[in-house]
Design a protein that fits this description.
Blueprint: E1 6-10, H1 17-30, E2 33-37, H2 50-61, E3 67-71, H3 76-82, E4 87-92, H4 95-112, E5 115-120, H5 130-138, H6 149-162
Parallel strand pairs: 1-2, 1-4, 2-3, 4-5
The structure holds 4'-phosphopantetheine (PNS).
4'-phosphopantetheine binds next to β1 and α4.
Amino acid sequence: MTSSTVLYPGSFDPVHLGHIDVIEQAAELFGAVTIGVMHNPSKPSGLFAIDERVAMLEASVSEIDGVSVRAFTGLAIDAAKDCGARFMVKGLRNAGDFEIEQQMAHTNYSVAAVRTVYVACRPDRVFVSSRFIREIAQYGGDVSHLVPAAVASELARIAKATS
Ligand code: PNS
């Protein structure tokens, strides 16, 4: 295997502990990981702006060696090319993730020869999703055990401002 970085693309709105597990596994496998904060066209209504997502990610991965965070616009295959990644990494929580990710992986390879590597998410975190974190936090629920400290404090700040 080459020593190039692997791209971990996602919307990370916000990053949660399931993502951190994937980042840790990717860093162990590849040595260098570029986290690509991207727009997901099927998720138009976000909670955090892209620069806020990047800042929370940077704070959350600062102690994992070899990890950097960048925002990208456009296609994940172009982001991979831009950061010199031949591979992308994705975490699989369940069969639903597999269905979506397999189609994207085949498409990305077909269009740009960028390969996708899957890692199995930690069993104690397979239920965690950014969507439900956003929903629960927006109604004042406590999700601090599911997210890094930097995200928990941002969610608490929003909750305080809107209460
Ligand atoms: O965390 P998400 O929302 O599941 O991440 C999805 C993401 C951002 C990786 C995906 O929507 C994506 O790759 N977006 C960039 C646009 C793109 O490359 N589209 C073609 C997919 S085959």
